[in-house]
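Q: My collaborator sent me two sequences in one message, no labels, and asked for predicted structures for both. Can we handle them in order? The first one she listed is below.
A: Yes, handling them in the order given. First sequence, followed by its structure tokens:
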Amino acid sequence: MLKRILFFAYGSVCYLIFLGTFLYAIGFIGNFGAPATLDGAPRGAFATAFAIDAGLLALFAVQHSVMARKWFKQQWTRIVPQPIERSTYVLFSSLALILLFWQWRPMGGAVWSVEDPVARVVLRVLFAFGFGLVLVSTFLINHFDLFGLRQVWLNLMGRPYRALSFGTPGPYRIVRHPLYVGWLFAFWMTPTMTLAHLLFSIATTGYILLAIKWEERDLTSDLGDAYEDYRRSVPMLVPFARRQASAGDSPRRSEQVT
């Protein structure tokens, strides 16, 4: 029983660290209310700042993807107990982001700067919409399972973990990856796009596209024709990009990369 209590406490702490990281990310990316932000006065030589920022983004991408893959989980759970595997993934992802926030180097320069007050408000609203869509999407696919709390809670109660049933709630009937759509809004909808912000947005967009490819390969392997039907009938990121058929109700599962 003591081990189960410790696992639950560990999972809860990992979740709280994630929650704090997520809230800080809003200010960091949106350039408000955070000690350090994505944009700002240049720090050091441009080449050095670029190399550091690119390295931080690469570190996060590698950690986030490798730890989400099946082959890694199979080896990792020989070391980390199964009930806290997801919480540990969440913790490592949060730490990678905290390191990025801490060591990020603004590079100055303005790719664009929107001065019209109405347009700035519109961009801010779209930015908020992006983060809102991310949060809503996680709850639609079971927020607490995605971030490891369900696993440690079931373990605490002495109940076996059962994978969630698959479905297409809400925006998942319009696009296959609304969570990623939300991130794209959050990354690109800014009144002022600096060079550092542009690097961040391009790198994270490229990572999202690769992550979708890897995730959908795993989904097809797990779900077979059911996911193939869903993939053919529902667009990936752009709503109404092609006609949806009844197969759009085919099962799917949550994003494994968050």
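Q: And the one she listed second?
A: Here it is, processed independently of the first:
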Amino acid sequence: MTTIAFFPGDGIGPEICAAARCVLETLQEEAGLPMTVVEGLVGGAALDAADDPLPPESLELARRADAVLLGAVGGPKWDGLPPAKRPEQGLLRLRKELDLFANLRPAQIFPQLRSASPLRPELIEGVDILVVRELTGDIYFGQPRGSEVVNGKRRAWNTMVYDEDEIRRIAEVAFRAARDRRRRLCSVDKANVLETTRLWREVVTEVARDYPEVELQHMYVDNAAMQLVRAPAQFDVILTGNMFGDILSDEASQLTGSIGMLASASLGEGRGMYEPIHGSAPDIAGQDRANPLATILSLAMMLRYSLGQAELAERIETAVVRVLDQGLRTADIAAAGERVVGTRAMGEAVAAALREPAAC
């Protein structure tokens, strides 16, 4: 029996996870999947219940599961807590404890949503980007870090650090992905300023020798940010570190029209964790307004990467396309005059599309 750990989290997390669960349960009925879903607490919800953003029982659930689906964490309710108690620490600890070092974030244009993109249609034509972000190193985890008061003035510091093994293993993931796509890889760094990223460039160049069929390009992060809005179709696979990847993948999400459309997979040597790249959106939590499609597409990635069910993943992706073809939109992707539906209705529509023969 396959076990899936669901961590709805905070804000809109429970709503979008409920929509994904509706889709998963429909797929189970249609395909006869022997699968069980177990829910756990992480983030602010876990802090409220157990005074810990990742309680031991939640970590153990994640370790036992074959895959993890996560909603979102955080919110202003917990902003005043010390750093170690912040909800986001639950997510970071999950990534670190499960050694989920490779984050895959696809940004693909849905033809039905061209009008939702802030860029002109000719700029986004053919955009299909995969951001491969290193996830367990860099400035988010580097030591030393801290803050203090010196002579009455506050100061704080963080450390950006990578070793060559961390860089090499994420580079391998990116080169393999590029080899299976359009065979172009852009490695993003700041090697003109940062020693950390000079090492990054050196190691990526070394790994490239094992992939002669993949065209390697190096690009500084500031130029990459500009090129993503100037000529995004030039990119195939973007490889970068934790902090740069966090920023660039959110920028790439806007090419598609909404951050509510982007799924992600966090992978290691064993299980994977799947989540939308957006946050907890506390301003619309509980209002049935959130877009669940990124979470549903994350579910498809889970089936493909962790459960070996590529055909079922394609069924979910096809169902999403069918729903968009039907003109259904959540508020974040709706143009004037288009039909706006809520979180629950969008999840139910995708589930209904799965039952239609044309979705198979």
